[in-house]
Structure formats: C-alpha cells, structure tokens
Amino acid sequence: MKKVYITRQIAEEALKLLRENANVTVHSGTLPPKKNEIIKNIRDAHGLVALLTDQIDAEIIDHGKQLTIIANVAVGYDNIDLEAATRKGIYVTNTPGVLDDATADLAFTILLAVARRIPEADSFVRSGQWKGWSPNLLLGSDLRDKTLGIIGLGRIGSEVAKRAKCFKMKIVYYQPQRDLEKETNIGVRYVSLEELLSISDFVSLHVPLTSETRSMISRRELNKMKKTAYLINTSRGQVVDEEALYEALTEGEIKGAALDVYDKEPISPDNPLLKLKNIVLTPHIGSATLETRTRMAVLAAENTVKALKNEIPSCIVNPQVLEHRKNKT
Ligand code: NAP
Predict the structure, then answer these.
(1) Whole-angstrom Cα distance, residue 71 to residue 292?
(2) Co-location of 182 and 207 in the same domain
(3) Distance 153 CA to ligand 1 centre (A)
(4) CA of 1 to the centre of ligand 1 (A)
(5) 149 touches ligand 1 (CB under 6 Å)
(6) What is the pTM of this model?
(7) Whose C-alpha lies nearest to ligand 1, atom 12?
(8) Which residue among 3, 78, 184, 306 is the one 20 to 30 A from 247 at the CA level?
(9) Domain limits at 308?
(10) Is 265 tagged catalytic?
C-alpha cells in the first residue's frame, strides 16, 4: 500500500478517506513537525498532506523520492517551493473555494470589530469601568455610505464585497486584471491602487503572497490613506510592512487596523502592535470553522487519493508539472 504523511491531525472524515487508500502516518501535537521529522517521514511517502505553517522547501522535496503530491490544506501555497516540486514532477494542490465564506465572514467580523471598538468595549465591561450609559461612550464608525476598498477581488474578496453591499457600503476594487463581469454582478467600481487608498474608509486585503504583493502596503501606501480609514488584513502578514503600520497607527496616519495574519506567526510577545488600542488582532483563524476546516481537509484528501491512483488531482497550482510528468513517461 502507498504511504501518506500528514503534518497534523486533520478532520476525521479526511483521515478515513486517506486510510482507506494508503498507509497513513499523522504527526501528533498541535505544533508543526520539525524539518527533520518531515524529511524522515517523506523518504518513502507517496503523498504529503501539509499545512500552511509547514515550510516545504527544496531540501525537503529532494528527500521525497517517491512523492507524487503535496496537498496543502489551504488556498495559499506560499509555504511550498513550487519550482522544486515541479522539477521533481510532484503535483502541488490547494483548497480553493471551500473556505471563501468562512474567511470573508472573518474579514467582515474584524472590520466590524475595529469600526465598533468591540475588544475595547468588551474589556471595558469586564474590568468594571462601566458606570452607566453615556452619549459619547466608545463611539465608533458607521459602515453605511462608507467606501470599502478591496485589494484583490478574487474568490474571498468577492464574498467580502457581497457582505459589504448588505451593509450599504460603496465598493471599489483594485487588482491587475479588471473583472467586468463582477463589476456588473456585484456592483463594484475598478480604480487604481492610488485612488483606492485615497478614497477608501476601509481597505481590505485579499491578495496571495507573491513577489509583487510582498510589502505592497508600506509607509507610502499608508500615508495615502485617509486619517479616518481602517486597514483590514486577512491575506498574508508579509503583504503589510508591520513597522510602517505601527507608525501609521501611533502617528494618526490611519485610524485603526484589524489583522488576522502577521509577518511572523505566532506574533512575538514584544511586538509593539500588541500594545495599541486601535487594532484588533486574531490568530490566523480566517477559515477556522468546523465545517470549513473539514471541507478543506476532505478536498486535500481527495486530491491525494487521486494522485495515489495515478489520476490527475484537481486544484493543481503548478500546472507545468503535467508537462514534466508527460515527458517522464
Ligand atoms: P484568488 O481567488 O486567487 O484571489 C486573489 C486576488 O488577488 C485576485 O483577484 C488577483 O487578481 C489579486 N491579485 C493578485 N496579485 C495582485 C496584485 N499584485 N495586486 C493586487 N491584486 C492582486 O484567492 P483567494 O482564494 O481569494 O485567496 C486570497 C488569499 O487569501 C490567499 O492567497 C491566502 O493567502 C489568503 N487567505 C487567508 C486566510 C486566513 O486564514 N486569513 C484564509 C484563506 C485565504 P488577478 O485575478 O487580477 O490576478
């Protein structure tokens, strides 16, 4: 029977599917396995089911002599060396689509949380500071008639836009390719990045981490935003320059921020962002619902099983691998 290594305990439904088709080894514990543990386990494995916290680099891939698939249980795949995998003829797959609603819900939740100062309000009540109703207590910001600027109107960005419509917001978006169909269907307006930054009351990031998007929101971009604006990031931490964000938040360049993702995860206890009141922080839980995480794990398991059976899996993010594999046979 072929072998599969999974770097963390995933949903039972997915494990069952994999166990029916392979000899499965699962890394126990909640933290990622060490690099040498991954290497040890993939030496004779045909499938690797990985999570976004596993850095699957060329060295690891080199040790997977029999590996046919790396199935990432995430839509982002910036943790995998795609070139190295492609060279070796290994499929790399992700889990697009099944997490859009959960991630858009989270983006909207933290947008509302920062606009309505929910963490501050919660600790205000718990700490016994609430002495009575007051007309000026914890005033936040309306959403109605405000402009939401979406950077990356892909699967998740589009779902965020649909939610914003229900909150009576105006929506503009920026991405390299204009999408006329979505402009009509959702009711969004295409603008340049510069314009988006200067007119938006809320800027929400939904781009993949690539060489173009790394640090795309830095000092210059934050300075272009309104002093009353909020930045929401549920994409990848490295898209935002955190030092510049700290400065913008403390110097009043922008009003607030809400982050689900960070430059270094977990966030360091001495990260100065932790001390600020005008920021909402969640621990990378965009897709963290029971139903969504199950769907993601099952999709990764289905892709793995297909590859084990010499079928072409769905959700391949390195399509060039098909050519490599064809040339090999
Ligand atoms: P997607 O459907 O591929 O959408 C990505 C969007 O980003 C596309 O509209 C794309 O536009 C745009 N984009 C690419 N490069 C850009 C650039 N340089 N400037 C501006 N826009 C750019 O991806 P998705 O499924 O929505 O996921 C987006 C990202 O969210 C993932 O890659 C992942 O990193 C993150 N994510 C985070 C969580 C979490 O737990 N917080 C959960 C899920 C996903 P074009 O079509 O024009 O290229």
Answers:
(1) 16
(2) yes
(3) 7
(4) 37
(5) no
(6) 0.97
(7) 152
(8) 78
(9) 3-96+290-328
(10) yes
